[in-house]
Amino acid sequence: MENKIIYVHGLSSSGATASAQNIQALLPQYQVVAPDMPLPPQQALQLLTDLVAELQPVLVVGTSMGAMFTQQLHGQTKILINPAFHVSQLMRKNLGTQPFFNPRKDGVMTFDITPQLCDAYEIMEKHQFDKVTVYDQEHTYGFFGTHDEMVNCQEEFSRYYPHKVLFEGEHRLNPEVIERDLVPLIQSILMNS
């Protein structure tokens, strides 16, 4: 059975993100599964929970908003890339119709950020660390760009998790960071797990 890595995209993105494709190209021995995430937070977390149960991945990698969801997948080895633990705050500054950066399987090109959606995220955010286990603490890695000007949740991450890695880069990953920093981290984690 092929080992699987689940990649969880951020807000405004999709499973067709170049980051997932780049990871797949650099780690051909793994199957990278990158779903389109539903916008309602409870639906998104349920989709991921079900996918993890079905695929039994060796690793879950989440970026930004996707890292907030990934953090809540207990009992998994995971990497949180520039996690946006309070994505509702970013969303409240961008109410209205927004474009998706990447094509989605359902063909939808835009999404609506409403106050109600922000409220739903805020409720989840308040309880996202409630069930952190010792296993989670030992198997969760933070991956933080030193020039991330969009979010900075390093201090909050460090309250719960000891494994923090910094990389020279911004909020969004680029192919160089993926090849130089992220893939070696993935390989090191999987070799030692």
TrEMBL record:
Top-rank lineage group of the source organism: Bacteria
InterPro entries hit by this protein: AB_hydrolase_fold (IPR029058), UPF0227/Esterase_YqiA (IPR008886)
Name of this chain's protein: Esterase
UniProt xrefs under SUPFAM superfamilies: alpha/beta-Hydrolases (SSF53474)
Pfam family, one: UPF0227
Organism field: Bacteroides coprosuis DSM 18011
Gene3D superfamilies xrefs: alpha/beta hydrolase
PANTHER family in the cross-refs: ESTERASE YQIA, ESTERASE YQIA-RELATED
